[in-house]
Amino acid sequence: MNQNTQEFFFGPSHRKVEIGDFITLCKNSEITLTSGAKISNFPVAYKTFGKLNEHKTNAILVCHALTGDQYLLGEHPVTGKPGWWEEYVGPDKPIDTNKFCVIVPNVLGGCMGSYGPKNINPKTNKPYNLDFPVITISDMVKVQHILIEALGIKKLASVMGGSMGGMQVLEWISKYPENVNSSIVMAASAKHSAQNIAFNEIGRQAVMADPDWCGGNYIAEGKYPSKGLSIARMMAHITYLSEAGLQRKFGRKLQNKSELSYGFDADFQVESYLRHQGMSFVERFDPNSYLYITRAMDYFDLAEDFGGSLALAFERTKCPVCVVSFTSDWLFTTEDSKQVVRALSASSSDVSFVEIVSDKGHDSFLLPDESLAKTISGFLSKLEL
Amino acid sequence: MNQNTQEFFFGPSHRKVEIGDFITLCKNSEITLTSGAKISNFPVAYKTFGKLNEHKTNAILVCHALTGDQYLLGEHPVTGKPGWWEEYVGPDKPIDTNKFCVIVPNVLGGCMGSYGPKNINPKTNKPYNLDFPVITISDMVKVQHILIEALGIKKLASVMGGSMGGMQVLEWISKYPENVNSSIVMAASAKHSAQNIAFNEIGRQAVMADPDWCGGNYIAEGKYPSKGLSIARMMAHITYLSEAGLQRKFGRKLQNKSELSYGFDADFQVESYLRHQGMSFVERFDPNSYLYITRAMDYFDLAEDFGGSLALAFERTKCPVCVVSFTSDWLFTTEDSKQVVRALSASSSDVSFVEIVSDKGHDSFLLPDESLAKTISGFLSKLEL
After folding, report:
1. What's the whole-model pTM score?
2. In this structure, CATH architecture of domain B4-192+300-381
3. What ipTM is given for this predicted complex?
C-alpha cells in the first residue's frame, strides 16, 4: 500500500531528512475541510506495527498528540531516538503487536510526511506555508477515516490516543461510530479551555514574533525561527508537567555549580532542562505545523457541532469507551474527563473511567505507569476480534 | 525630604516621562549587595499617602509586586490609569489614610525612579543596562530599610505586600524584626518554586530572543523589544489568573465575530485580551527591569540564609503576622502560605492565617474582595500606635 518516500527540510540547518512511506489519498476525488477549503491528491504518512489478520479485524488506530508522529516504535528518522510509545506497544506489551496491528498516521497538518504546510503547492512549486488551509481535529479524523477505508478496514478493533490524540478519538466515536469497536481516551477533553487556548496563542505569538519566521516563508528565505519555536516549546513543556513533579525533579537545584552566578545564564537545573527541551524540539518540528496544529486544538469543541450538547455528540456511539485521566494533569484535568464520561453516560454509552494517581502531569500517558499499562491491557483483553 | 524629579524613557517610542519625587540614599556611604557588588549615592523613588504623626508611629510600608510601583493611589504618570491598590487604601478604606501614613517605594531594580538598569552609569554616561548588578529580594529590603531610617521612622506600624511584595515582607520580619510592629503577607511564598522559576526563565528568554533587545542596549540603539516583552507578559498574565476565572470570563467566546475565521488572527476573546495585556505592558515597563526583578524572585529562598530552616529565619520575629492565601492562586498556593505559617508557629511567632475563597487566581489581592478588605481592616484595628 505504501508507495514512496518523501524528503523534508528539518531544523535551523534545513537538512533534508527522508520521512519514509506514505500513501496518496483522494487521487480522483476531493474532500471539503471544515473551513470550506477543498483538498485532493494529498499524502498521508503512516506506520504499522504487527500484522493485519485475514478479516482485518485486529487493527488499532493510535492517534498521536500535538508534537507526536507515526514513529510510535523504532528509531525516529530525524532525532534517532526511540519511539514515543515503546512502553505500551510491542510484542507482549499492553498493546500486543503479536495480536494487534497498530496503525499510526501522522496527522493532517503535521510535518512528518502527511499533508501539511511544508508540502509543495503545485501552483507555485514552493511550500504552501501559510497558504495551507487551516485545519481542525475533525479534518484530521476525516483523513484518517479515508486512510482506514483505503486499507480495507471496515471496523477498527480500537481507536486510542492521549491529549490531542484523545480529541481525535472522541471525534471518531462521535462521527464514525460504525467503524469503531472500542476506544481509549487519555488525558483529553471534548473542548479546549480558555487557559489552553491562551497558552497555545502565546506559543504561536512567540513563533510569529521571531523575525526569522519571515511571515511563514523561512524555508525559501534560508532562515528558521529557532528562538521563537524554542520559547513556544519551553512554555508548553511546563504545562505538560506538574508543579509537584517539577519540584521533585528539580526543586531549586543548581546546574553544575554550587553557588548562584548573579547573572542571566541558567543557574537552576530547571532552566537548563527547559532550554534543552526548547533546542531539541527546534531540530525536529516544523514551526508552521506548530501553528496549524495548535490552532486545530483551539478550535476543537465537539459539542458545538451538536447544538452545544455533548451527550448528543455521542448519541450514535455504541462501542465501549475507556476514559483515563491523571490526578496531576492540569492541562486536561480529571474534571475535563468527567464531563466526557457524564455525556457518554447520558447517551447510554458503555463507558468506564479510570483516574490514575501520578505526579507526572499531562505527560503521564507517555511515561511508564503500571496502572495505565494494566488499564489498557485489561480493556483490550475483553475485545472479541 | 524629596528633592527632585527624574525623567525616564518609556515604551517603544522612547517617550520621556517625568517620574516624580525621589530621595538619594547612601550619599556618603555604600552598601554591599548579596552578589558582592557595592552601590552608593543611588535614588529611591517613593510616594506617601496620609500624614506621618508626631512620633512617627503610624507608618505602613507597602511593598509592591513584580510589575507594581509607588503609584498605589492616584493617576499613574505613564499610563494615566488609577493606582493599583485604590480598593484598599485611602480615607476610610481598610488601610485608612486618615489614620496611617502609607509609604510605597519603587523597588531597587525597578523602572519608576528607583535605582535600576535604566539609570545612568556615571562611568559611561549611558544607562547601565546589563552592567547593573543582579539584585535580590534581600537587597530590595535593605534599601527600604535605609529609606525608612532616612525618613526617621524607628518602627513601622505595619509592613504588607502581595506576591513579590509578600516576599519582601517575609524578608523584613526575618532580618529587621526590631523595626516592624505588624505585617501582612499576601499570596506569597518563602521561596520560588521550580515551576515559577521556569515561567520567569521563559519570560526572560522571550525578551532576550527579541533582536530589538540589542543585548540590553535598546535605548542607545533606538530600538525596543516590544514583541519579546509582550510575550513574556502574556505568559505571566495567564499565571496570574485561574483556570476557572478564565473559563468564567472568556470560555470559548469569540471576539467581535459569530464564526471562526480559520486563520491566525485573534478569534477568541481570551486571545485578544492577552494581546492587549501584552501591548499595554510594553508601554509602561522596562524590559531590562523585567529581567532583573524576575531574577530576584527566582533567587528568593529565605530559609537558605538560615541553613535551610525557615523556622530559624523567623527566630527573631515577634510581631503579629497575618498570612493570606487565595484558593485559586496556583502561582503562590495555599500550601506555600501554610509552609510560612508552620515555620512562624514553630518559631513561636504570633501568626494568623486566612485562606480566601476566590476564583480570581493570584491577582486576587489586587482586586475587590470583601474578605480581604475585612481581614486587613480587622488586623490593623488591633494595632496600638
Report:
1. 0.96
2. 3-Layer(aba) Sandwich (3.40)
3. 0.94
